[in-house]
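Problem 12. The chain below contains 101 residues. Write out its predicted structure in token notation.
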Amino acid sequence: MGLVAQQSKNSINPTWLAKYILALEWSAGATARAEDRPIYTQLIADAGPMLAAALENNDAMMAKRISQHERLWGYMWLQDPVFQSASDAWQAAKAGGRAAI
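Solution.
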């Protein structure tokens, strides 16, 4: 029997995290609501260090970053429905890519 690498519940695959960041960038460019753009900027800025932690396999930092990012999503209210693609990408990233984007 071979050993299979398992993803920690406190980690996110960097590839799926990158797809999420690109979805945020697309949503920021596609939104018709000017008030949404600074929110996307904050989400992208917060996701950057999370990507670094994922690339470093730093589970302790990832747990903190995931929790912080979840709070950020909870405090922000995006008006334009284009946010759904970024939200779906975030859910897929947290699920390890098992959810469809």
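Discussion. The helical segments are 14-30, 37-55, 59-75, 83-94. Students who got a different answer should revisit the alignment rule from Section 12.3.
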